[in-house]
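Risk register update: the risk of archive-format incompatibility is retired. Evidence:
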Amino acid sequence: MKIHLNRFLRRVRIHGGEFDTSARAMYRDEVVYPLQAEPRIVRGSTIERKQMSTKTTFKRIALVTVAALGLGVMSVAPSNAAAQLDSLAVSLASTTQNTTETLTSTASVLTATLAGTKGIDTLTVTASIVSGPAYVQPVLAFKESTTAIASTSADSSVQTVTPNDTNTVSQATAKYNVYLKAPTVVGTYVVKIAPTGGTNAAAVTVSIVVSAITIQAPSATNSKVFLGVSATSGITDRGAWVQGAEGSRYSGLFEGYGGGLVSNNQADTRTISLPLAGTLIGGGAWQLYGANTAVPAQRTPVTYTVSGPASLSLQTDATSLYSTFYTNTSVTESKLGTVGHDPYDPASQNGSFWLTSTGAGGVVKVTLTMGGVTLGSRSFSVIGVPTAYVFGTPTKTVTGVGETSSVTVTGTDSILTTTGAASVYAFSSDTSVATVNSTQASTVVITGVKSGTATITVGNAATIATSTITKTLAIKVGAITAKTVAFTMSPTAPQPGEKVTLTVTATDASGNAVGDGSRNLFSSTGITTSLAVQGATWTASTAAVTLVGGIATYTFYAPTGTGLLTVSATEGASTDNVIAAGTAAAITSSVTITNAGTDAATSAAEAAEAAAQDATDAALDATTAAEAAGALAQEAVDLVTELSAEVTKLMTALKAQIDSLTKLVLKMAITVAKVAAKK
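Archived output:
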C-alpha cells in the first residue's frame, strides 16, 4: 500500500533558493513505504543536509522563536482586560443653567456603556472644566442603571461603571446627570467628560450656558404653610415631628405624624385635649414660592404672629434648641439663613416653628407674612375642661304616654369649644308626667307617664343642689290616642293646578298634641276628595298617620277646574270616639277652587259688551240729533232767504226815500241861495 505524504500549507513553508528540509517533507511524486527506508531517499536527504545554506539555518531559528513566543502568549492570561463596546454619549451637547442652581430638569444626561466582566473590567468617567469665565465644579450625579454596578457618589466629578455579572462578559449601562455645582458667574462653560479603562470610548463635551437667576416676589397663592398638632398632647422629638416616621422632610406635617394634621388649603378643624403648660403641642413649616413655582422667590425675614393659648418658638441657629417663646405677639426673624429655617437645610426656601401650650383652652392661630405678603394662616383648637352642657336634638318632639325618647348631652369649654360627650346625671321636674334614667350617662332617656309638660335638668353631680354645671330642657308628653282630628288647607282659595298643603292636627283629651309616631287616625278608607286632585302625598286607603308634634302634613295639586273641593276622612282606631265604641266622626275641610284668569277674562268681556252697547246707543242718539239739527238748519235757511228778500225790499224803499230827500235838500239849498242873492 502506498501512502502519499501531505503537503505543508503555504503559511508554514520556509522558501529559499533551493529545496531544503521543508522541501523534503513536501515530496509529491514518490511513494513511501513505512516499514523500510528507501536508499535513494536516505541518500538524497544526506546530500540535502550537506547543502543547507546559512540563510536556511536562520529561517529555522526564526521559526522556532515565533513558535516559542506564541506558546508564551497563550500560556499567560491578562491581569485586567480592556472593556469592550465602551462608549460615552450625552443627551444634550448644549444646555442651560442659572446661577446658584444645581441639578435642574434642563441637565444633560451622560450615558456610559461597556461590555466586560465584574471584578475585571471598569469604565471610569471624569468630568472637568475645559473653559469658562470662572472655575466651578462639574458634577456627575447618578440618574439610573439596571445593568451595572454604578457609583453614586454625591457632588462628585468622577464616577465608575462595572458590569453586574462575574462569570460572563455582559453589557452594562449607567446614566448620570451633568451639571455645574451652584455657579456664581454667568457665561458659557464647557465640561469635558473623559473615559479611562476602555479602548473605544471617546471623550464628550457639554456646553452649559449660565444665566443670572430670576428672583420673584413671594406669592400668597403658591406659598404654603403647614401645621401639625399632637393628638396625644405632648411630643418631645422635634426632629421626628418635622421629618416624620418615614424620614422624608416634612412628611410628619404632610401626613399627620403624631395623629393630626391641619395642612395647607385644608379646613382648620383639628382639636386637641387641654395639655399641661409647657407641653409641645404642635409644629409647623412653610414653603416659599413665587408666581412661577420653578423659579425661586425672594427670601426676606418672615414675621410670625401667634394668638391664643400657645407660645411660638423658632430655632435661633442650626444647632440650638427652641428656647425663646412668644405668646400673643408678632416676631420677625433677626437674620436670614438661620432663624425660622429648617435646621437640616438652613439655606432653603422653607422654615419651621413650634407651638407650646400655655395650659389654657382656646383657638391657636399662626399667621406668616413675608415682605407684606401673607404666606398663610393656620389655626386649631385646644379643648379645655367642660364648663357647660349642650343638649342635642331630642328624638321626639312629643313623647307618647308609655313610650320613650332620648337626647344626648355634650360639654363645652369656656370658649364654647365642644369637649365631646358629657356623662351627666338627669332629673325630672314632674315624675308624674315624665321620668328619666337614674344612672349617669351622656344620653338621657325620657319615659312619658301622662299628658303634660315637664323640665329635664342635667348636672355633674348626683343632685341638682350639688351640681356645679347644669342644663335644662323642656319636654312634652302626649296621649297616644286623639280626642279630635282636624283638617286645614292652605291656600284657602287655590287656583286650578296650584299646590295645596293639607295639615292634619291631632290633640288628646287634655288638649295637648298627640305623641309622636304612627297613629291610626283614619278608617281604612283613608283620605278622599270630592274632586280629582293630582300628586297627593298621602297613601290611598291608609289609616296610619305619622305625627310629629301632633301634626302631619300632606300636599296635592288642586283640580284644573273650578268649584268647591272637599277633603274627607273618617276617624280611625286611634281616636277616642272609636275606642269608646262611639260613632266615628267625619273629618272634613273645604276650599273653593277659583280661576282668577278666567274670571277676569269673563268680566272683561262683559264690560266690553256693555261698552259696545253703550256706544251703539250713543251712535243712534247722535243720528237723531243730527237729523233734528238738519231740520232746524233748513228752517233757518228758509227764514234767512225770506228775511233776505224782505231786507232787499226795505233797502230799495229806503233808497228811494233817500233819493227824494236828496232832491228836496238840493231844492232848499237853491232857494236859500237865491234869497241870499236878493239881499
